[in-house]
Write a structure and sequence with these properties.
It contains nine helices and twelve strands. It is α+β, with helices and mostly antiparallel strands. α2 packs across α3, α5 packs across α6 and α6 packs antiparallel against α7. The relative contact order is 0.19.
C-alpha cells in the first residue's frame, strides 16, 4: 500500500480572473489530503463520506481519476485536513494525491507534470470549467504565479484562514460570474483586467517580502471580487474582523459564495480570535514548499 499527500492552497490574488487569461498567485498551505492506494479485486473508495465503488455523486474526483487511469482493481482510502467546498483546493488535493498514490502503487511512471495536467483535466470534466491553479500548486507546492509557472519566495508571515462553514459548488459560482460578464461585458472585463494588474503588482510585494503592501493589494482584490458578485455577508464579516485585528490584509480565497477568506498577519493568534468572535472557524497555518509527496 502506498500513501501520498497533497496540500491545499490559498489565493493571494487572481481567482476568477485566471479563468479569463489573467495571472494569479497561489500559495500551498500545510493542510493536506492523504490518500492510500493498494491493489484490490475491485474498485473501492473510502472516505468520511462513506465507502463506494465508482460513484460520481459521492466521490466524483476519485472516480474520475480511476477512470482516466483505466485502473479497475484498486482500493483507495482518503482522509483530509481540508474542509470541502471551502476555496482551499480540496478537490485538487484529493485528485492529485489519488493520482500520485495510484501512479506509485501500480508503477505507472507518470511525471509530476503529467499528474498536474491530468488533475486539471479531471477538474474541468467534473466542474465544467477550472483553472490549472489548484492542481498545479497541489502538485508542486510553494508560492506560484500560475500563468508563467514562476515560483516565488515562500511567505514568512502568518496565515489565518477563516471558514464560514457554508460550502459552495465551484461550478455554480463560475457560471454565475460568466453570466455576469456576459450581461455587463464592458464593466466586468475591466474588473477582470484590474485584478490581473493587482496580481502583477502583488508579485513584486511577494519578492520584496513587503507584507504590508501585499495586504493592501489583497484588500483591493477583495473589493473587486465583491464586484464580481462572489462575496457574502459572512465572508465580509470575517474579512473585516481580521483587518480590524491588525492583519496586513484579508480577502476571499477561492470561488467565493461561501467557503473561506484568508488573512496575512504577524499576530496569527489575535487574528484567529477575531475571526472566531465574528462567527467563523479560524485555521492557523503556514505556507509550504512541498507539493504532493509519498508519506
Amino acid at each position: 500500500m502506498i500513501t501520498c499527500s497533497a496540500p491545499g492552497k490559498i489565493y493571494l490574488f487572481g481567482e476568477h480572473a485566471v479563468v479569463y487569461g489573467e495571472p494569479a498567485i497561489a500559495c500551498a498551505v500545510e493542510l493536506r489530503t492523504h490518500v492510500s492506494a493498494k491493489r484490490s479485486d475491485a474498485v473501492t473508495i473510502s472516505s468520511g463520506l462513506g465507502t463506494t465503488g465508482l460513484d460520481y455523486e459521492i466521490h466524483p474526483y476519485v472516480s474520475s481519476v480511476i477512470e482516466k487511469l483505466g485502473v479497475m482493481e484498486i482500493s483507495v482510502d482518503i482522509s483530509s485536513d481540508l474542509p470541502v467546498g471551502s476555496g482551499l483546493g480540496s478537490s485538487a488535493a484529493v485528485t492529485i494525491a489519488t493520482l500520485a498514490a495510484i501512479n506509485t502503487e501500480l508503477g505507472l511512471g507518470y511525471s509530476h507534470r503529467e499528474l498536474a495536467r491530468m488533475g486539471h483535466e479531471i477538474e474541468q470534466e467534473v466542474q465544467g470549467a477550472a483553472s490549472p491553479t489548484d492542481t498545479f500548486v497541489s502538485t508542486f507546492g510553494g508560492v506560484v504565479e500560475i500563468t508563467s509557472r514562476k515560483r516565488l519566495d515562500s511567505l514568512d508571515c502568518g496565515i489565518v484562514i477563516g471558514n464560514t462553514n457554508r460550502p459552495k459548488k465551484t461550478a455554480v459560482i463560475l457560471e454565475e460570474v460568466k453570466r455576469r460578464i456576459k450581461d455587463f461585458p464592458d464593466i466586468m472585463d475591466s474588473v477582470i483586467k484590474t485584478i490581473g494588474s493587482i496580481t502583477k503588482r502583488g508579485e513584486i510585494s511577494v519578492l520584496e517580502k513587503d507584507y504590508r503592501s501585499l495586504g493592501r493589494l489583497m484588500n483591493i482584490n477583495h473589493g473587486l471580487l465583491d464586484a464580481l458578485g462572489v462575496g457574502t455577508a459572512e465572508l465580509s464579516a470575517l474579512v473585516y474582523a481580521a483587518r480590524n485585528a491588525g492583519a496586513f490584509g484579508a480577502k476571499i480565497t477561492g470561488a467565493g459564495g461561501g467557503g473561506c477568506m484568508v488573512a496575512l498577519t504577524d499576530s496569527p493568534l489575535k487574528v484567529a480570535s477575531a475571526i472566531e468572535a465574528a462567527g467563523g472557524q479560524a485555521i492557523i497555518t503556514r505556507s509550504t514548499p512541498l507539493g504532493v509527496v509519498q508519506e
